[in-house]
Specification:
Distance between the termini: 13 Å
Largest sheet: 10 strands, mixed
Shape: globular
Structural class: alpha/beta
Helix content: 25-40%
Strand content: 15-25%
Order of helices and strands: EHEHEHHEEHHEHEHEHEEH
């Protein structure tokens, strides 16, 4: 069997990226028989003080990782956190790394998923203003992301995934009392997903304030959420140190720890490598090397 190679970027090196990457690689908690390849040049930076140089190095590493993905030099990539503001100053025209990889790999069918030890969520809308979410929701988008989430669960070994679909409004709209989106958009999407013979059990729309407890208790394998904070608040509350961001739908797996650059604690020896360890482990799992 060919040994798998996982590429790892350091992110913005003024943040905690380099230290959590180093700690993860030295942890003894990663699968054996895998090559881990650091991408990009190591900089001499002042920790906690991001610069144009550190942002450019982070961007260069992202571009290099795409080249390596396309050439087959790496089988998956794990990306450390980047500073969005610094990247945008360089002309990085994407809300985040998720959209960057989807663009560079010409992947129109992608979605953001966060998974931890207790909870897995996928997002129908991602980095947009909350006020824009209702107009951006559509039956087709909910169905599209739902399919990707179901397939991700199956890829992880769940034979018959149970996916709970969140409503948009409080109490899932309470029969139209709090908006019509759950009746006119979300419910028809759930019905369409239920009609497909894909081996995935979709249910909903569920009230967002009550669905995460049964999901954590094991009644569901994943929750499909309508917008960013609907899924990320419970995920980060429960799985902050084990949460992993994975871009669904890419031809080559990409994962990332579920935290930011944390410039304020960079170099102080308090940053947890737990999320980075889990991100690397998931990348290995997705290419069949987590054994």
């Amino acid at each position: 069997m060919k040994k798998q190679t996982i590429g790892i970027t350091r992110g913005d090196q003024a943040g905690i990226g380099p230290e959590v990457v180093a700690a993860a690689l030295a942890s003894g908690e990663l699968p054996e028989g895998v090559d881990f390849r650091l991408i990009g040049e190591r900089l001499d930076v002042t920790l906690g003080e991001p610069t144009q140089e550190s942002a450019q190095a982070a961007l260069d590493a992202l571009e290099e990782s795409v080249r390596m993905m396309k050439s087959g030099e790496i089988d998956a990539v794990v990306t450390a956190p980047v500073g969005k503001e610094g990247l945008h100053d360089l002309g990085f025209d994407f809300p985040g790394q998720t959209e960057f990889f989807a663009d560079r790999l010409s992947c129109g069918n992608h979605a953001m998923c966060l998974t931890g030890k207790r909870l897995t969520v996928a997002l129908v809308t991602i980095h947009v203003a909350l006020a824009d979410v209702p107009e951006l929701l559509s039956r087709s988008e909910i169905v599209r992301v739902g399919r990707l989430l179901g397939e991700f669960c199956r890829q992880r070994g769940v034979k018959h995934p149970r996916v709970a679909v969140c409503g948009l409004n409080p109490h899932a709209g309470e029969n139209g009392a709090f908006g019509r989106e759950d009746i006119e958009i979300v419910a028809p999407a759930v019905k369409e997903l239920q009609s497909e013979a894909g081996g995935v059990d979709f249910s909903g729309p569920h009230p967002p304030d009550t669905i995460f407890r049964p999901a954590v208790d094991g009644e569901y394998d994943a929750v499909l959420c309508m917008y960013h904070d609907q899924g990320l608040i419970p995920l980060k509350l429960l799985d902050f140190d084990s949460g992993v961001n994975v871009t669904l739908g890419l031809p080559v797996p990409r994962t990332s720890p579920d935290h930011g650059t944390a410039y304020g604690i960079a170099g102080k020896g308090v940053a947890s490598a737990g999320s980075m360890i889990q991100a690397i482990r998931l990348a290995c799992e997705m290419v069949g090397s987590d054994r």
